[in-house]
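Q: Sequence in, structure out?
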Amino acid sequence: MAARYLPNSAIDLTGLRAGSTPSRMTQTSLSITRRQALAGLGATSALALSGCAASARPEAIAQARVIGAQRLLEVVGYNLLEHEPERATALGVDTGRHAYLRGRLEDQSPAGQQAYAATLRQDLAHVRSFPREGLDSETLTSLDVVESAYDLALDGFALPYGDTPVGNWRTAPYVVIQNVGEYLALPRFMQSNHKVENGDDADAYIERMEAMPATFDGELARISAARAMGVVPPAFLLDKAIGQMQQTIASAGKGELFAADLRSKLQAAGMPESHANRAAILEAGPIAEALTRQLEELRAERAVATDDPGISARPRGDEFYAWALRSSTTTRLTPDEVHEQGLDELAALHARMDPILRSIGYTSGSVGERMQALSQDPRYKFAEGDPGRAEIMDFIAERVEWIKAQMPRAFNTLVDPNMEVRRIPPAEEVGAPGAYGGAGSKDGSIPGRFWINLRTTDLHRKYDLADLTYHETIPGHVWEGEYSNRLPLIRSILAFNPFSEGWALYGEQIADELGAYEDFEVGKLGYLQSLAFRACRMVVDTGLHAKGWSRAKAVDFFVTRNGSKPAEVESEVDRYCSWPGQATGYKLGHSRIVDQRARAQSALGQAYDFKAFNDAVVLGGNVPMDVLEKNVDRYIAAARS
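A: Exactly. Output:
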């Protein structure tokens, strides 16, 4: 039930959902109970309606208003989770009065997406109308973040096709393709996030499985409608998606996607396996049949597809890319501006790499050519097959332990990340990047995860795997997520690509500044190449979607200009084709954070403190770039005082 908002900021709380989540921070945040909220808001209303506001203590009015804003933010958060119940499970907030969310899935149909947009429109109006006077900086930031995210998402929902992210990093014009779609997301989600500890959990597992055919058919309606508009993915992406869909359907026929997972969870909990038997029937029957209908549509698309990689070749493609670029950067930069910035940053990074390459004996050829030669140096390769996979996992574990020990040198406010390293499921590896990572659940019950692609050990090198580890774990994605999880629920949900990825790159920089490569100079090449790789992304993404580049030209740019590994780059470029704009946010976000640090150093001089600046950025949470600047303004003002 949605909340109703009354004049003078008084809120009818009959439909509000109470609840708080524990934090594993070394600092705690304010916890507002329902009774406190009612009392605080009642005081605000009484003061306003009685005409006594002028004589009331300003602090009391301000505190009541802060409580009202926090309750509003809580309502907004749960209203969003009504449309994306899987996020409630991932965050660990599908408990108590919200436990019903554990048995639901997002409505992927056109009507379901329209209803989602209607909720965003309603809640955006509520947030915009809430008075800002007397609110503390953290609450102001939260309201600004919701306003920015919802405004941006609604522009995406207004487009005639695609899968719009709400506080997420993916901009997907194709609802089902090689790395987008519930055929990939649901098996991973159910296996990783849907816990089965009692009968209610098992019932919810089955309820979600019963909802899956409608979920797949909802996607089918949207991709069929897109094809009718002339929006068809590139043929090379469809070839990958068709192969993966065939494998998924074969697995469903054997009960490998869901039934086997549920059976193992029931066994671990010492529970009867009758639910798993029901799951096997659902999986091999209605679920496999719905997936087969999607496969037939993908084949119909393939029959009319071209190899044109860019979204600009599709109807209203320029309009879609303009929105996708804004979503991915939280700026108004044009494709030309992003392209030129990428070229400039690439040149600057190669200038830093050149002397290191010379010092280890690589003196002839461009930086890209020399990095190609370095990548073939057997000293820096992992063994092939399972021995090499084990070697990679051991390497990652050692680097995680090292960087954990360094964190008191970089932050005043520390967290203790609950995390694990996992291999990307083999069925997904062909369409997946080299790695990805993210925070755990808000309640700490689901760990943060570093997913590593091990389809071949040739994807990784000993000089670049350390840097990748810092990016995905500490001080990167997993570390940053622990701070976001202390914020109001809606702030734990909403994320912005340039902050998420910019922070992870800044985490790489912190590791370098803490001495990660003092005894392994070639490892610094991996770090600098990582930054250069992200600068290349700015060039290649805009090249593909705004400048008419071919897929081959995009791959060649990475290989020849940056010395990237072809096996890695081909999947990367395909990802950019299915997520227009997303790849541009990484280096742009990193550069904005570094620029803000330079601004703080210049403004504060001797009063600048490395640890305090890092705290100011990460404690401010995941924000758009303009809100980041406001947070740094407040840090500078506080340091001066």
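Residues 196 and 202 are 6 Å apart (CA to CA).
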